[in-house]
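User: Can you help me understand a structure? I only have the sequence.
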Amino acid sequence: MSMNDGVTTFSWQERLLGDSRLFVAELPHSPSVSVAAMVRVGTRNEEWPRQAGLAHALEHMVFHGTELFPNQTALCSQLENTGGDLNAWTNDDTTLYQARTVGIEVETAVVSVAERVLHPLLPEEMIEREMNNIIQEIRRAHDTPSSRVRRRAKGLLFGPIHPLGRDVLGTEEAVSNFTRQDFSEFHQEHYRPSNCDYFIAGPVTVSKAHELFERYFGTSFGRKSQVYQEPIYRKFPSCFIEQRDIKQAHLVLSAPTVGARKEEAETKCLTFFSSMLRRGMASPLFQRVRTELGLCYEISCSSGIWPDAGRLSIYVGLSPDKIDPAIEAIHQVIQTTKNDPDRFAVTKKMALGSLAIARETSMEVINLGVSSLETFERVYNYQDLRKEIEKMTIEDIEKVVDCYLAPENWRQVVVGPAS
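Assistant: Let's start by predicting it. Here is the structure, written out as tokens:
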């Protein structure tokens, strides 16, 4: 660890455990330690429609007990009683298991993650109850227009054939029919230690971290290779409308961009431009569409990046009669912002500041490491990320906007009232 302009910095140090990689960030002054295991399995690995949502459902099931902790109460109390917390999430390509606690309880955190990843009981008596919980999660997403429109927009862009067009939550029909055999076979196939990468950040040395992970995760070989396929983006229909018994319209504009493994530099520029558009109440999107024109209550922008694909999306919640002027205003903002030197400079300053602030907590450090490994297949140190931001030019931004975000490249999805 070192100091740079008053900011605590660090470098990831990598150790091998067979085909698995362990990334260690030594933060000797951090009061907390955070641990994560990134299992390289997600919705992309499911066989649809039979396994629709299985990766996410398995993530739920592992919390219902392990070999050392026979039920959910015992499993969660093991870490929560130290003042810590545990969590997990599933996406298209990976499933992540996390634990955070005080530094002196580092072994407790490692055990919490290892037990969930390697030794879940998957109790038969809990499957129906937990699947019912997930069905309620699916119904909530369906019944919440702002969530529904985002999911429909992703499906419209990638289509029903490409894995990225699928919903991580799966379908009610598939989820309601999962059996213990389904979970056990999926776990045996994908949750091998060789199919995981590990992260730890906090007041722990590299040698201590290596010792703990070797003890609880072991060393194994035989990693499964993830298969990616570049999508053929759907051009038609370019607009989709779903009518609901609601009063507000929910609009998502999505433009296909590029995958990180194909054009890494361009994906970073597109992410930066997303920040230029939406970062803060002083952002161009907020000021123009909401404050100056009064067209909406909520507007947001996000950049999605996968190894084989990418997209930039803008969400707006507004009155149905404001949709057309809002779309026109959004395209105007994109064109005026792409070469705005003042907004570019402000966004760069904001990005560097956020990067420095993110180093305050061990879990934020973990999340940055996981995100970069998942997307770019490498883990960036603090100085690497800082240099990436500093070297970016406004000409780089203008180039990617002209290439990917021209008005004719956008798809529209609306969930709104029948009128």
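Now, to help you interpret it: The longest strand covers residues 296-305. Residues 1-7 have pLDDT under 50 and may be disordered. Let me know which part you'd like to focus on.
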